[in-house]
Design goal:
There is one protein chain. By secondary structure, the chain is α+β, with helices and mostly antiparallel strands. It has a single domain (2-125), classed as Threonyl-tRNA Synthetase, Chain A, domain 2. It has helices at residues 14-31, 65-78, and strands at residues 2-4, 7-13, 38-40, 44-45, 50-56, 82-87, 94-98, 104-109, 115-120, 123-125. The strands form two sheets. Strands 3, 4, 5, 6, 7, 8 and 9 form a seven-stranded antiparallel β-sheet that branches. The longest helix is centred in the first third of the chain and has 18 residues, at 14-31. It is globular. The protein starts with a strand and ends in a 37-residue tail after the last strand.
């Protein structure tokens, strides 16, 4: 990595960075047990960065939210991610971390407890960026204006008891 105008710049291009972001998300979802169903959310392109997003379509009950956040926190810490900020708000908690290679990762709980993940790449060389090749585990809602609220029940994650 070289420093450019105060920010780090990676040797990869936007497509390689997007692929790395997908790998970060793929690795995380493999560590969440029992598994949750998710769909791709929007990909954003900046002048030198990419943001990949996924929305969890499994209902994570308020009673299980702490368990879920704990699983993600432990997974990120065990992978050497640096915790940047943790919001312990009971209704809209969030975790913000950074990988060793400068990718920002976040978990944000939104309306009705829907969990969103986001990976922001460091500044990289400009290039075309293809859609993710990772297969979503929930419907993709292509052509829809918005991703609906979580609508897939899990015996564990959707349970009303902690």
């Amino acid at each position: 990595m070289e420093t450019l105008g105060g920010s780090e710049r990676s040797d990869m291009d936007m497509q390689q960075a997007a692929r790395r972001a997908d790998d970060i998300l793929d690795d995380l979802f493999k560590e969440i047990r029992p598994e949750v169903k998710w769909t791709h959310d929007t990909t954003s392109l900046g002048s030198c960065d990419v943001t990949r997003r996924r929305a969890v379509m499994t209902i994570v009950s308020a009673e299980r939210r702490g368990n879920f956040l704990g699983v993600v926190d432990r997974a990120w810490r065990s992978n050497g991610y640096r915790m940047k900020s943790i919001n312990n708000d009971p209704d809209v908690p969030a975790i913000f971390a950074q990988t060793k290679d400068g990718f920002g990762v976040s978990l944000i709980v939104g309306g009705e407890g829907q969990v969103f993940f986001e990976v922001d790449t460091p500044c990289v060389e400009e290039s075309e960026v293809a859609e993710s090749t990772t297969q979503a585990t929930a419907p993709t809602y292509e052509g829809e204006e918005h991703i609906p609220r979580p609508n897939i029940r899990s015996p564990f994650w959707s349970a009303g008891a902690p």
